[in-house]
Write a structure and sequence with these properties.
Layout: H1 3-8, H2 11-22, H3 25-49, H4 55-75
Helix pairs in contact: 3-4
Length: 80
């Protein structure tokens, strides 16, 4: 199955890929940084209000870590 066929089965991902290709890279990085900043504040709030061991807190922590890993990967990809 081609990557395009694979994306047709996940329409939200196809939309995301299309939008990423349309946005200038600095804008995308700025948006990702803002999202991480907001989610980090939400995580701090979750920790103080519902506890660090609550499943929502842990889920958000994993999500933030995944975003950071993805962002770091994209920043280390050499330009072609």
């Amino acid at each position: 199955m081609s990557s395009f066929d694979n994306l047709k089965h996940r329409p939200h991902q196809a939309y995301w890929v299309e939008q990423q290709n349309r946005l200038p890279l600095p804008l995308t990085e700025l948006m990702e940084n803002e999202v991480l900043e907001i989610l980090t504040k939400v995580l701090q709030s979750y920790r103080s209000r519902i506890g660090k061991n609550h499943f929502l807190t842990k889920q958000l922590q994993r999500y933030i870590e995944g975003l950071k890993r993805r962002r770091n990967k994209s920043q280390h990809v050499p330009a072609q």
